[in-house]
Specification:
It is a single chain. The protein has one domain. The chain is 80% helix and 0% strand. It is built from 3 helices and no strands. The longest helix has 19 residues.
């Protein structure tokens, strides 16, 4: 994951956290699914793993 890619993922994550609660969980799940799809079949990326963990923590409460 490049610095620019991490910045985009982080901006999207922060935007979701600051948005209305009614759609927060659905949007976080979509973000997590998009992250998995973007890095599926590629070597493990620790930054993507950290982002995945942060998103999952928010989804699971």
């Amino acid at each position: 994951m490049t610095f620019g890619e991490m910045k985009q993922w982080t901006q999207r994550f922060n935007q979701i956290l600051g948005a209305a609660q009614c759609l927060k969980e659905k949007r976080l799940k979509n973000l997590r699914d998009d992250l998995v799809q973007a890095y599926q079949g590629k070597p493990f990326d620790k930054h993507a793993g950290f982002m995945f963990a942060a998103i999952s923590e928010q989804v699971e409460g």
